[in-house]
Amino acid sequence: MNLSDTDLYHITLGTSDDIDELENLYNVLNDSLQEGTNYPGWKKGIYPIRETAESGIATKTLYVLKIQNEIAGTIILNHHPEDAYKNAPWGIVADYNDIIVIHTFAVHPKFMGKGVGKSLLEFAIQHGIENKMKSIRLDVSIHNTPAISLYEKCGFQYVGFVSIV
Questions:
Q1: What is the pLDDT of residues 57-116, one digit of tens each?
Q2: How far is CA 130 from CA 49, 126, 149, in A?
Q3: pLDDT at 5 over 60
Q4: For residues 67 and 108, is the Cβ–Cβ distance under 8 A?
Q5: Are 12 and 62 in contact (CB under 8 A)?
Q6: CA atoms of 148 and 94, how far apart (whole Å)
Q7: What is the CATH number of domain 3-153?
Q8: How far apart are CA 90 and CA 95, in angstroms?
Q9: For the chain, which residues make up each domain, given as ranges?
Q10: C-alpha to C-alpha distance for 15 and 138, rounded to whole angstroms
């Protein structure tokens, strides 16, 4: 199944009704990452956690992609960069009010490889265009080759390496 070929999904702002399911998605994903290659370096009980979802929903920055009313993926889009972003050689200089920063981009393991991540990134790009943003920024572990490949396929460009720890 390729989501771009179907109308079986929708992306909306997350709501308080989604918090339990988001917490479960984070836990299932972290369990899956621990069993295989943990590309992003996330840790169950540390990040992402229930409070990550609660905060994103409270600030109306967390979006969910649902397939038949089940959360298949989620993304947080806000204007808050990591502190280390100031050290990155961004190609576009702008105030962060004019930049979207992608956080907590997660796909439920049972929906991986089905276009959920690509659809969420396309949504982020369209959201940026509609809101007249000058740039979209994100960070990724240099070891997270699957995510880097997806980002490049969606038009994101590598700008440099900075340590965010």
A1: 999 999 999 999 999 999 999 999 999 898 889 989 999 999 999 999 999 999 999 999
A2: 30, 6, 25
A3: no
A4: no
A5: no
A6: 24
A7: 3.40.630.30
A8: 12
A9: 3-153
A10: 24
